[in-house]
Design brief:
The complex is a heterodimer of chains A (139) and B (483). Chain A has 139 residues and is an alpha+beta fold. Chain A has two helices and nine strands; from the N terminus they run E-E-H-E-E-H-E-E-E-E-E. In chain A, 25% of the residues lie in helices and 42% in strands. In chain A, the strands form two sheets. In chain A, strands 1, 2, 7, 8 and 9 form a five-stranded antiparallel β-sheet that branches. In chain A, strands 3, 4, 5 and 6 form a four-stranded antiparallel β-sheet that branches. Chain B has a single domain, classed as tRNA-splicing ligase RtcB (Alpha-Beta Complex). In chain B, strand 1 and strand 2 form a beta hairpin. In chain B, helix 5 crosses helix 11. The chains are: A alpha+beta (139), B alpha+beta (483). Chains A and B meet through helix 2 and strand 7 of A and strand 4, helix 8, helix 10 and helix 13 of B.
Chain lengths: 139, 483
Amino acid sequence: MTPDKPEGYLEIEHTADISLRIWASTLKDLFKLAVEGLNSIIEIEVDDTDPGNFQEFCIEDIDLESMLISLLNECNFKIQEDNLCAKISELLIEKEKISGRLCLKKIKSVRKEIKAVTYHNLKINHTKKGYSVVVVFDV
Amino acid sequence: MVALTDFKKISDYEWKIPSNYRSDMRVPVRIFSTRKMLEQSLSDLSVEQAINAATLPGVVGSVVVMPDMHQGYGFPIGGVAATDFSTGVISPGGIGYDINCGVRLLASQIPYEVVKNQIQSLVIALDHHCPSGVGSEGGIHLCLKELDEICEDGSQWALKNGYATKQDLRRTEENGCIPGANAKKLSERAKKRGLPQLGSLGSGNHFIEIDLIEEIFDEETAEIFGLQKGNIAVMIHCGSRGLGHQVCSDTVQSFQKTIHKYGIKIPDRELVCAPLNSQEGQDYLAAMRAAANYAFCNRQVLAHLARKAFEQVLAGKFKNWQLYQVYDIAHNIGKIEDHLVDGELRKVCVHRKGATRAFGPGSSGIPDEFSKTGQPVLVPGSMGTSSWVLAGTKASMERSFGSSCHGAGRLMSRQKAKKTIRGDQLKIDLEKKGIYIQAGSMSGLAEEAPGAYKDVDQVIEAVCGADLARKIARLVPLAVVKG
């Protein structure tokens, strides 16, 4: 956790790939910030003239970590294949299911390619201050 | 954290962590490195990751790590782990997301002195013909049936469609096609990503480079490989693009459940695996091979496009401007091979993640012309430093599952590289040294600066000192197309 800000994301040292520490006071915000962090790494420029479309999603998996990686991979796929930038507009988190709506906007440009979102040493930590996780992206 | 005192020194170039170092290790870890490079490697998690790999069910012999090692995810980059074919597992994280990322070397009979004024035109033509950069797509429009053929036939598809010669295929690992691939095992998403990308370089550390063969260390072997001092050559580094990334992502995701089904315990979730003899393991093997075949074909099409670029610039002005294949190797791959383990010949799945096959003289599976020399081992450096051509040795068969290093190995994070190096200044500095750069992104160029990598010459000293390979030729860059 980074004490001076209640929530955020920060790139931390990794020899070859990109490692992102994300922290938030609620689990919902942690997921939202993880998606924003992905967009930040890729250095996306969104087409501001696009009003955006909403798309519902539902991910079922064995635990929170797996659902986080599925969500990030889903957003990465939309960037690479559909040229769309995703932000979470609604999110409901259950034990083995997350669902909600993504706001998708057209992308003007991207400066980096993420091959995949990895499970390396993945663990969502919960303390009195909130939630945190470190996600390693393969570039 | 692992300390230098935890290692047993075997020789100046070999270090061992015994299997009793941690209770869950099944085999020792052997690191081929100089002391100085080993000390460098202790600053990140690469050694811990090798120790984690040594816990995989059915792992045999030792987990082997090359001197270009650095921290990856799950396995270290530069790691080799062999698992028993009958009782062991296959781990997609031990192969990597860029399945069959690899290197191809094309040689020529073109003396640098004759074409030195054409190098800038050549790199511009290469950049024009070979699509590169973030989200790059190739110029070949495939239908799904053709994509399936590529995934199952690899470079054979390229030969049938005029993008390859028979010699290209003979001089490609597995002749450019790993048997047992099954396109039906690919997800719709993997296919969607693969359709537009054949014949594209991508981004990150991928490149096409024009090199000068500056030094020959073994004239006889160099002649057999087709390398002559003073001539230029072309090196291509890329892999299976989005198709391969998707195969690995799909499998790492699905194997999160599979490990529970088979009661497998692992220290890092990125090391998920499935028994090789299970349906899940076989499905991944077939999909991984399909992605590997796509990668062989991708590099083959890029080689074809590189030849077009050379033709455009040199045909009619110079004689013998053609490019012919030295070899093409995979350095992110899982292969079923026979190896001696504790004196017994065993069928194993060799996971090479950032490690190159380095089969020695007399090995099966290498072209006849290399049967006395050992196979060519292609080791790219970083943009401003040497690249190397080595040859596999008998010792590599005995000590490293027929494997050697794959490059210089990163030393500095991308974040730090971008903070300390300016891409535009780097381009100017390299051009002052006579190295032309075509790069889509200056920040991407900064991330891949030579200073962000280890000294490739020290890596070569370590693998040759350990007798995993021997020096054949040293190449220096003249021009680079950076993805």
